[in-house]
Design goal:
This protein has 415 residues and is an alpha+beta fold. 40% of the residues lie in helices and 10% in strands.
Amino acid sequence: MPGMIVAPEPLAVEAGAQVLMAGGNAVDAAVTAAFVEGIVNPMNCGIGGYVLATLHLADTRGGAGQTVALDAPALAGSLTTPDMWEAASLGPNPDGWGFLVQDRVNYMGYSSICTPGAVAGLAMLLARYGTISWADAIAPAARVARSGFMVGQTLAASWAYRSHNPLTCTTLDAIEANPEARRIFLRPDGGPAEPADVIRRPDYAAVLERLVARGPDDFYTGELASEISRDLAENGSFVTPQDLAEYAVRDIKPLTGTYHGCKIRTSPPPHGGPTLLAALNILEGYDLSALGHNSAEYIYQVSMALKGAFADRNPYLGVSGGSTSSRAGRSWWPTCRRSHPIPPTSVWWIATATASRSPTRSVPAPASSHPAWVSSTITRCATSTHGRARPTRLRRARAAPPAWRPRSSIAMARL
């Protein structure tokens, strides 16, 4: 069937293309590519991560079809508490995402691990909408994991990067902090892998083969779940056996917007869909085609739209239609057209804006958030008010910040 595969790594794209050429559908190709991507792009995805899918199902009778979405998030473990990192908070990450905590425990190590949703999410996608077997979807990834893959320039550069800020956590920091990760991803001399190095992951291949033999439930309630739970408990994780056993994928309602007459359906809060629609609402004020694709002016205007969308993300993500309305987009046009600076924002500023009367305060998540993410919200957003100046735009914010999840840790590398 005709189609297009988009993924960060060529090996994952090739695996998905092979599925399409063999007669599989788009979901078959997506699930297969996702499993391979987890091998060759190990710092960003894998069976220790999560899945978010937005699908448009065609109507074979010629109708408009239906758009659906599945959410299999990485959930904070049930042993988390609202104030566990409040005293250790160091404020927002100056690199632009998340918060800094003493000893970087929210970014690396067993304390940063969440309940993984990837296996359950991919299994449900394939069962509902796919046509190939679970074994066929996993087989290419298992082959790549066992035979090995060649490290490319992008992956090698991400591993070699060292931050100028010792409080932040780089990929290499996370690898070096975990013995299994060091064994798998570092060279014999202790340095990071370089371009053209070959990395083999036989342990990961064995786990994938177990999932083929015993099914996805083994990850959550079977023997594999017991092994995972034992390792997590021995090393101070907040994820419990009950968290794994009770994990459930959610059906969510896609968010709908428009751009120059085109209807767009994307993921709802707390995911990135609202920010995408907000950026497009701002860009509707420009004739981008007249600027010339990737011209200096084109890149500048798109950058300004993205900055405006992200400036509104934290204050308004919990408000229905807060940053995704056309009116919200138009409100940014004067700023962007006059090249006025857009102040940086973070959840920390929202916390200080809404908690100015108390030295420390936890800001609750909006009711529309996933309940299991509330503990993650509190641990990342409860901070001290240090009297830092706040941008004028944020003073009108009344929304609580969305629920952020701690990253899945490289400590899951053995999987």
